[in-house]
Fold:
Amino acid sequence: MSILFSRRAAAVLSLAILIAPAAQAGDVTFQIKNSHPNAMRIELYSQDRDYVWPGDGKDFFLDDGETKQLPISCNEGEKICYGAWVDGDESTYWGVGPNNKETCDDCCYTCSGGQTEEIELAE
Structure:
């Protein structure tokens, strides 16, 4: 009887593992306004995995004075930080900067749906 029970328990456990949900997908929209007199480039970096938006060696481009909505799909609860820099001048940056190399106090958001408040990047 105990052998039969352990086989059933193993089967139930195996089935539970097979149908367990993967990481929940979420969406968040970053609202970023460029109040700097120069154009800038932006990337969004996961702090929980090796992932960057938009990815594939590309970045988001904001002209001076432009505001953009940057919608991304991310994992629910994932910490996402923005890095921005003046086009052609990576030494002038905001957030975690180019390539996620810097630290910041208030440039990260949790992937939990919705959108960020407007993030204004200025001199």
Observations:
- The chain is about 15% helix and 45% strand.
- Strands lie at 25-34, 40-46, 52-53, 60-62, 67-75, 79-86, 89-95, 108-110, 115-121.
